[in-house]
Design a protein that fits this description.
heterodimer; A: Rossmann fold; 2 domains; 9 strands; 36% helix; 15% strand; globular; B: mainly beta; SH3 type barrels; elongated
Chain lengths: 308, 142
Amino acid sequence: MSLKGRHLIDPNDFTLEELNQIFELAHKMEKNPQDYSDLCKGKILATLFYEPSTRTKFSFEAAMLRLGGSILGFADANTSSVKKGESISDTIRVMDGYSDIVVMRHPREGAPKLASNFSSVPIINGGDGGHQHPTQTLTDLFTINNLKGEIKNLRIALCGDLKYGRTVHSLIKTLARYEGMSFYLISPGQLQMPVYIKDYVKNQYNVEIIETEDLEDVINKVDVLYMTRIQRERFFNEEDYLKLKNSYILTSDKIKNAKENMMIMHPLPRVNEIDYSVDDDKRAVYFKQAKYGVYARMSLIAHLLGVN
Amino acid sequence: MLTVNSIEKGIVIDHIQSGNGLKIFERLNLAKVDFPVVLLMNVPSSVLGKKDIIKIQDKIDIDFTMLGLVDPNITINIIENSEIIEKKTVEIPQRVKGLFKCDNPRCVSNNDIYAIPQFTLVDKKKVKYKCEFCDDFTKYKL
């Protein structure tokens, strides 16, 4: 199935076969990057980041540069026409003429979907508010697939800010589509995963979901522990953030009795939710995960441009 | 007894639960139209006890989608030559565009004029809708 010209707004915009297609090419790109260094020559990726980003933006830029393409864009809406009050639709219709593919990050939920209504080139959702982050999900799945060999029959624990954490929203929606998955949702009561997402995965895919506030209670049962940051920028008041910011801190002590082959993942950046002492544990794969993100995005760009 | 003449041509929105007539009147923007309209409130009704009625003269092409959101018991009578030529019932719409706002303050539809709020019905009993932009649930309240 060709993905040429398609948008990626929600991780479920692609079928599992299409996701697999992306992982297969990403795998080849990882093994022999030199074979793909001219694949996007003459193509331009626009990076429209209305909200600060280091990882996603650089990961996309690295991906496009490794494919031989070029990049343009902004990393701060205050330095663009947005500051002058330009609407999303106007910005997109102009960028259409300047670039071949666009990645957009926006604090408003649904902004990339709005952009896709006005765009003739592929729009990639680079994260919209606390809603979705589908390319982080590509990264996460590619990582699990590479390190576990397949995505099947896994107990996944998602821990931290599950309310505003867009990475976990996209991840659970997508993982729930694979065979034999079950989920532990670990968060303080105030940061539980939104009902609309839990309803969706339960009704659509009939997966088992167990909610708890206690990380240590479940850590020994899981195959993947996905930690997330409590995000200061998603809170309307600082007081609530301060109350919750230290809810979960993973230390080497806490993972002593966890499974030998458990994977500790994190979309990064981390603040203090994973102690530095955990970094040397072979189960900690978050830096590998960040590296895999570049290949997943290279493959995505190539597919959407139809040059794969 | 207050008497209001029947209309020769137009629409009668009947069986409105007493108290909702004025809200519907406002939602249909009937205060701003230039054709004759009448709002009757607290009319005795054998079924409802009391009901509201709206009569609209001449105008036929009005979007009644929102009526289903207000009260699925409402009936719409289309009048021609002083006779009811069609009786319509309303139902809770499956898809709604632009009739109400998304409850999620972070949703782009609350912050961009090009993002007209659009919803799909997910729970008929609770009149709960899913936003097309942010996926969050919004319960319709009149």
